[in-house]
Structures are given as C-alpha cells and as structure tokens.
What we know:
Blueprint: E1 29-30, H1 33-42, E2 45-52, E3 55-66, E4 69-75, H2 79-82, E5 91-105, E6 113-127, H3 131-145, H4 158-162, E7 164-170, E8 173-179, E9 197-200, H5 222-226
Antiparallel strand pairs: 1-8, 2-3, 2-5, 3-4, 4-7, 5-6, 5-9, 6-7, 6-8
Amino acid sequence: xxxxxxxxxxxxxxxxxxxxxxxxxxxxxxxxxxxxxxxxxxxxxxxxxxxxxxxxxxxxxxxxxxxxxxxxxxxxxxxxxxxxxxxxxxxxxxxxxxxxxxxxxxxxxxxxxxxxxxxxxxxxxxxxxxxxxxxxxxxxxxxxxxxxxxxxxxxxxxxxxxxxxxxxxxxxxxxxxxxxxxxxxxxxxxxxxxxxxxxxxxxxxxxxxxxxxxxxxxxxxxxxxxx
Length: 227
C-alpha cells in the first residue's frame, strides 16, 4: 500500500498504551510506523480475536492495509462480523500478524527460541458499508496477497458483494515486536558438545499451476512470474 511521509499531524510512531507495552521482553517492542507497516505489508493472513458469548474466539482471515487502516475479509453470514455493523458500537478486537524468520537452537532446551516479526493491533472494528470504500477494500485485499491481481480479474458482482463482509480497523493502538540474532546460552553451557545457531526459514512461491479448465493460450501473467 502507498504511504505518505510523516508530517507534524502524522507522527512517525504510535503512542504506547497499557495494552501495547509487553510485560515481558519490552526491549523487543517497537511503535515505529515504518516498521509496523513493513511487517503488515509483507503478509496477508492475520488472526482476529474477539469475545463471543463470553468466550474467546480467534479466526484466521485475510487482511489488507490502506495507509492507517486495516481491512479484514469475512462472510455476511458470520454472526461475530454482523456485530460490527455501523448501527452498533462495533466489535472490540485484537488482530495479530506474525512472520517466523528462523528457529533458534540453543545448547539448553530452555533457551531455544524463534526469530520473528509481529504486529498486534487493538481497537474497535466496524463493518464497511459505503460502496466505494467496499470496492477499494476488496481490491486491496486481493492485491495484498498478489500485487496487481485486482486489475486482472473480474470485480465482484452484486450477488457476490452481498455475500461478502468487510470490516475496518484503524491503526491507532499498535505495537510491533521483533527478535533477531542467535542463541543466548548460559556461560556454563558454552562448552557443551551441542550445536547452537539459527535455522533460517523463508517464504517462497512455486511456479504457477494452470487450472484444468483454463482457456487455450492464456499464460500466467508477468506479476505471477515475478513472484
């Protein structure tokens, strides 16, 4: 998604709150907008948490960032998402995105860890009802997963739009958390005969696989090959 440069009215960092300051490893937390946006823009699957009938619920779903707002995909048949209607006060949610970058193997089992980048967003979600904003959000959701795809596919028709819910969540109460580097062992364990280090993980794409009913002569577009 496109950003603008921070201005006096658009600070470069989110203000910490009681909910965004971690109780453990607070030194790993960051409120820098550039870092938060980079972590969000690299992914397209989030976990959306809320309370339903007094019990916690966490749903994996698609999201997209447009400047200082997240759009989240859902179904109009989902009762929790109906709770985000404009006529209601909205739905209190916690949204998380995580990238796992490596497995950190230490000499002791206790000090094994992972290298990661994560974002946690707290706020109140509202359903998007404005037609123009809904189309913008749906295009953004497609392009978040595959940049350029929304312009290379048929837009949703009226029936499909009626079956699709989009909720928005403003980026206001936000924090990022990052862990990098190798294992941190106890000094007395350094001479133990066990390997220690990082097993890097990476996300990759295989070559596109044609659908069996693809029309003759239709080739994978360049933006897919670029992935």
